[in-house]
Amino acid sequence: MRLARLLSLAVILAGVTGDADFYSVRTKQEKDSSGRGGDDSNKYFHESTFHAHYDGRFADHQLDYHEQSEALSNLMQTYLATLADIGLETWLMHGSLLGWWWNKKALPWDSDLDVQVTEKTIHFLASYYNMTVFHYRTSRFKKGRDYLLEINPHYVIRDDSDSQNVIDARWIDMTTGLFIDITTARYDENHPEGKNVLVCKDGHQYADKYIFPLWDTVFEGAPVKIPFAFKELLVAEYEEKALSKKQFEDHHFDDEAFKWIPDAE
Ligand SMILES: *[C@@H]1O[C@H](CO)[C@@H](O)[C@H](O)[C@H]1NC(C)=O
């Protein structure tokens, strides 16, 4: 029902600039807390006024540490399950890949989750799944939660001149406003280093042999893929010490518990 309503509203609202209109997607919020007013008029996705990793259409405050980490695990599990169900490939990148390196879980201090897809995948999602709401019931959230897949129409612009739209899609928790950033790795046919370079609109570039073939592994308890040269990619992005230093962002890595523990505990 809700899906049908969203889709019909999506049609009526076609032509608006910026992400889907607050009144067409709102869940419980009386008022929109997204920072759209202060953003460049060309920018599609708007982060909230209270935190850059929350969508202000769905929430007006940041969750506490424990609630946030539960919501992030669920966000990742439901995203991975959805893409696997549809039969599409996606892989971990950036902070999520670093979290995988340590204990196959998201870094607890980082509310940013990052995944990548191919250009074929983003095109498929944009064609068939934009604004689809997925309902998941999990052992953590027994009543279930709704997750929205929203695709940035600027995904068709391939080059990085479109600097306001480096995120191609988001998987959004409609209960908490947390989301996963989905970026596309595109081949740049005219790249000075040859035809095998993948570029993302956020400026990252990789020879494709660093990404493919992907490895199968597990993240947050769900099957996932990671880039072939994950270690080299992590060192290039975070430096060698991020792979071994057990004291980080007011957390320490406990080898026995096999997880990051806040220093206060
Ligand atoms: C997805 O739907 C939203 C809401 O209608 C719209 O703003 C956006 O342009 C659509 N994205 C694509 C890729 O068509």
TrEMBL record:
Which keywords label this protein? Answer: Membrane, Signal, Transmembrane, Transmembrane helix
Keyword Methyltransferase attributed: no
Gene Ontology, cellular component aspect? membrane
What subcellular compartments does it reside in? Answer: Membrane
Please indicate if the UniProt record lists Amino-acid biosynthesis as a keyword: no
Coarse class of the protein's main subcellular location: membrane
Domain LicD/FKTN/FKRP nucleotidyltransferase, which positions? 87-192
What is the name of the protein in this document?
LicD/FKTN/FKRP nucleotidyltransferase domain-containing protein
Quick one: signal sequence residues?
Answer: 1-18
| Gene Ontology biological-process annotations | glycoprotein metabolic process
Task: Cite the Pfam families for this sequence.
Answer: LicD
Against InterPro entries, the record matches this protein to: FKTN/MNN4/W02B3.4-1, LicD/FKTN/FKRP_NTP_transf
Membrane-topology descriptor: Single-pass membrane protein
